[in-house]
């Protein structure tokens, strides 16, 4: 019989983070049953089962309330935390089978909690992006609220439209036209808008962002690892943070505008001027 364990991932403060229902032993559940369960949960959900590949330990399928996804980082962090806490996984890394292929997930104990880092894929970018007029209409802002930086769809797994804005206040005040925003996602082949700005202060690696997914069953996501990872690749590609060989990690504050404060750690590994690895890190709390 399957069993669902509820977790919260990337929590910065009580009440924050992104819920991640993790269903174990989901082998006998049909796609329709998994979709119906996710709709009932009203949250991005992950279902774990025996792998179909010899080079993987566990198979994971990911859903939002309205459709199946290829990958979800916060669900993965919740899933690996549950696997470790229930004793089903005793060694790191966990080799996870996903629709995008094998994903290696490292973990270590940090006191009573599990710190999880999951590999992403090498960065990709789409050159075609919405015009300023389209962006302003979708986000209900005036052109002066856009930063003078490139707008582009970036991905280390799923494409997210990176939209640099003038400041944190602009990010937090957004009230998008969701139907039009979703139509732009369709037009430009991206899975959501990720408007961001530099956090005030002296830390060059600290940013704030919001994530408006395309027809996910809810208008905004409190913490989105794949989007934070796409942002880290974007910042490195355009040399918008100090760079050094090795891991270059940013911290993204997300969810605060919707009362769900979250912290996400995303990094790219640089060798010379080339990104050779990407990862997302965080912790989950089991309810």
Shape, please? globular
Please identify the oligomeric state.
single chain
Strands ordered across the widest β-sheet: 1-2-3-4-6-7-8-17
What's the mean pLDDT score? 96
**Range of helix content:** 10-25%
What percentage of the residues does DSSP assign to strands (E)? 35-45%
End-to-end separation in angstroms reads 20 Å
SSE succession: EEHEEEHEEEEHEEHHEEEHEEE
Largest sheet: number of strands, sense, barrel closure: 8 strands, mixed, barrel
Number of domains: 2
Q: What would you give as the CATH superfamily of the largest domain?
A: Diaminopimelate Epimerase, Chain A, domain 1
Number of strands: 17
- Radius of gyration, whole Å: 18 Å
Unreliable parts: none
Number of helices in the DSSP assignment: 6
Report the CATH architecture of the largest domain.
Roll
Name of the top-level CATH class of the largest domain = Alpha Beta
Q: Helices, strands, pairings?
A:
Blueprint: E1 3-9, E2 18-24, H1 31-41, E3 45-49, E4 58-64, E5 67-69, H2 73-85, E6 94-98, E7 101-110, E8 113-119, E9 124-126, H3 132-139, E10 152-155, E11 160-164, H4 168-173, H5 178-188, E12 192-198, E13 206-209, E14 212-213, H6 225-237, E15 246-254, E16 262-271, E17 274-286
Parallel strand pairs: 2-3, 4-6, 11-12, 13-15
Antiparallel strand pairs: 1-2, 1-17, 3-4, 4-5, 6-7, 7-8, 8-17, 9-10, 10-11, 12-13, 12-14, 15-16, 16-17
């Amino acid at each position: 019989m399957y069993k669902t364990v509820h977790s919260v991932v990337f929590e910065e403060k009580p009440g924050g983070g992104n819920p991640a229902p993790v269903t174990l032993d989901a082998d006998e559940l049909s796609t329709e049953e998994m979709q119906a369960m996710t709709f009932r949960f009203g949250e991005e959900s992950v279902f774990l089962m025996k792998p179909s590949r010899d080079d993987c330990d566990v198979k994971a399928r990911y859903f939002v309330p309205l459709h199946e996804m290829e990958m979800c980082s916060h669900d993965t962090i919740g899933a690996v935390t549950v696997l470790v806490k229930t004793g089903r996984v005793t060694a790191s890394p966990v080799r996870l089978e996903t629709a995008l292929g094998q994903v290696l997930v490292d973990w270590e104990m940090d006191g009573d909690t599990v710190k999880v880092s999951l590999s992403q894929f090498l960065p990709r970018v789409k050159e075609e992006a919405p015009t300023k007029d389209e962006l302003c209409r979708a986000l209900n802002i005036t052109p002066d609220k856009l930063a003078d930086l490139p707008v582009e769809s970036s991905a280390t797994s799923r494409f997210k439209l990176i939209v640099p804005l003038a400041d944190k206040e602009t990010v937090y005040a957004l009230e998008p036209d969701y139907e039009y925003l979703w139509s732009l996602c369709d037009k430009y082949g991206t899975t959501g808008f990720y408007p961001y700005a530099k956090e005030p202060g002296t830390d060059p690696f600290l940013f704030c962002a919001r994530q408006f997914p395309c027809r996910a069953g809810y208008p905004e996501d409190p913490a989105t690892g794949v989007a934070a990872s796409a942002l880290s690749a974007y910042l490195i590609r355009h040399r918008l943070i100090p760079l050094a060989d090795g891991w270059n990690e940013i911290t993204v504050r997300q969810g605060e505008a919707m009362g769900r404060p979250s912290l996400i750690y995303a990094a790219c590994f640089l060798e010379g001027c080339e990104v050779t690895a990407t990862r997302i890190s965080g912790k989950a709390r089991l309810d």
